[in-house]
């Protein structure tokens, strides 16, 4: 069956096909690759054929899909009642009718309360198919009849689970019945590989028939079109609007509205809407738009305009129409109001009239405005000085709006009719007509005042609210002009001459010609003024002239005018360009004659509104109005600080209402930034080189900061760190550490209150220091600068700990012990310590908590027990260094000692420097136990000491024994060379004793020069032993000779004995030391390098020194 309405409509007339065709012209391959569509015309089906039969016969266009349902093919190509088509692009041919075959005719019938369905299964909405949210299109026919329940009679649905669950596809049902209509809807079907679509004629009491044709499910292809390509507007005056021109915007498959945007100088609208910079076009249910947009040219400045009107919608390519126009300047205009001033009346020559005012307005002006008075008239700007000279007004942005005051000051008598000229080149001339009559001046002395009566109206007991003025001038005077007030309530001043208000009199001296030029006299009333009417006067007088009295009247309320202000404002704090927090105070007043004027100082703002609406400048003024009477009820005045830069300011907010005493509210604010470190860094010690310490948190507090703050470090120099490698690191999160960090202020409070983390990472041994510093463009000093407090970073490092421990051997020799270490070559590189600490004690165990502390250097007392520091009570440090053999003395023969050794490192290998305080000790081994000598001693005599010392011309001999066993006696022996000895004296011993015994003897004839002494101990059984050798340098002055004298090079010193080892000292005649030398076996002293002169040569020491005067040639 072929529908008659299909035969005359070409397929391409369907709107979406136009889009597909146009898109295909530009990117046909891309479209085919990106999406596909499903289109079913049902033209292959047979009349009244079931869906199942047609599926089996392969009669569907999309035969890869699965079709099912209870609907059937239409009975013929011409449906019942020959229904015409209402939509374009129909395929023609067969359709699906939601009914069943009629058993009596070749037609169809609908059984009440029966569902009829069409199901299409196997649709792919992934990117390989239509894509998600595809567009569903179909033709729909509804037979004529009642529309009751028509909305839900025919529905469309989709399923993603094979029909277990369905989701409704909403669409707009045809409004008419008995005809075909085109339905299009943008669905929300998600991406899936097996989508089922079901159409259902829902069963009800009605037997209305529905038919469906031309099913299509396809991907959306949003597209926009605009025409014409350009609009050209005629010349248009700036500030006016051109006639409208139109563009047409068309769109298909749109997923959102179309926004039409006009460029600067153009406006758009749709329909009768107001013109604006944008217009929004809403797409219909099928995603289509076709609408006309009005465009007008509204230039704001002269010149040529060329730009584009653009149309944009989500997913569609933006399109545009070119627009152009030329803006012309408006013609200049100049007007005055009024064009004529009232007649100035009669004015005496040399006098002036009261002033009158006119207004000048100009626009689009290209030149200055010149205001020129005619003869006999003067002009001024408000609060200016009257003059007969012209006034020049400078337009602002081509505009002028200015009041000008005029007064009549004739110089000759007669009638005046003229015009104040107002001109500007390029603009029509204008002017204000003025007139007046001048009467002749008197011939004798005269005084003129204008006006002669001043009424202050209502005043309070405090005085008048306003200052009133009268003018006075005089002529032909022979004496000064004197102004005198009638009482102390009247104060006045000569405003022309300046000065303060006084009670009077004011004396004005006339010019040499007897004239007094016009003076403006300002008048005020001061309290106390009694209640009721007030009257007084100011008299202008001069000898020979008729006095002029200016009467002054008022009516006093009898009450004092008072302003009350309460509230203390704390310091305002903010950042430049940002208003501070708002504070307020309360203001009231009583018996006031005028409202209270509140004036803020510079950088501050005042307002009656907490939001400061309309306040745009600082130093502004607001008015607090009175109520219906003379009072101001309690009113809150809001204050804030708005500085343009970093500054501090203090001033007063002035609250005034004359004649009340003004009230000042002190106010202060600052926008100068501050920054500090809240807590100090605690010095870190004993951090192993090339490792990192635990971090410390330092809190940074900053106020009134807008810009980021960079925290960095200034490293102190150290000779062990010539490359200035940073020793400290900073972090914001305690995870990532760098050499600097950047803190960002809080955007609301303009403050910083957060920790930074600091850790020590030493690269050399010893102490390190850095100073924290900051930089921020908020500060006047924008360079890097110091905090000034809590900014010092200090730490000390120690060397790495040795990994190997050497074992010491200890041997005892009476009062000494020798500690030896058997270390291999290059022992430090192998892991042994660079040095060793030796500790001696009488205790057999060193407590575990008393080990040497890392980072401590122990001064050892020169290897003598008991003189060095103790690492624990009773544990003496006797040696620290790198020697492998150490002799420790100061031991007691009868005491057992224990020695403890500790390996340590403290050498900076880059510079081969041992750094004190950088020691890292290895834990100690089990202490070596050294047995002492236990009494009774195995030797016959325990010799404590033996000594020989020069005493005058003798040598004193002394020895001490701790105990003696079978001791017969002692022999003292002497030798010149230390090899051949002779006995010089003997002494009996004590036999056997455990007491200490001291022996003293004298060598009365000692040998000259170096001598050796030893002690021989002889036992009762004849056995003997010898002590260690001691030496003596003895010089007898009479036996010392030095020759030759004078000497050229070698001086021989003969001491009548061995001179080897004798010390010779050379000084000059002033006692200045020249050299000190030890004599050799040849007794020669080399003086070759000395300059010619006389020297003193001294040999020997102590009591045996001998000095000779030697001349060097």
UniProtKB/TrEMBL annotation:
Annotated transmembrane regions: none
Q: Where is the Secretion system C-terminal sorting domain?
A: 1042-1111
One Pfam family name from the record? Por_Secre_tail
Supply the InterPro entries for this chain.
Answer: Filamin/ABP280_repeat-like (IPR017868), Ig-like_fold (IPR013783), Secre_tail (IPR026444)
| Signal peptide from the UniProt entry | none
Protein name from the UniProt record:
T9SS C-terminal target domain-containing protein
Lineage, highest ranks first: Bacteria, Pseudomonadati, Bacteroidota, Cytophagia, Cytophagales
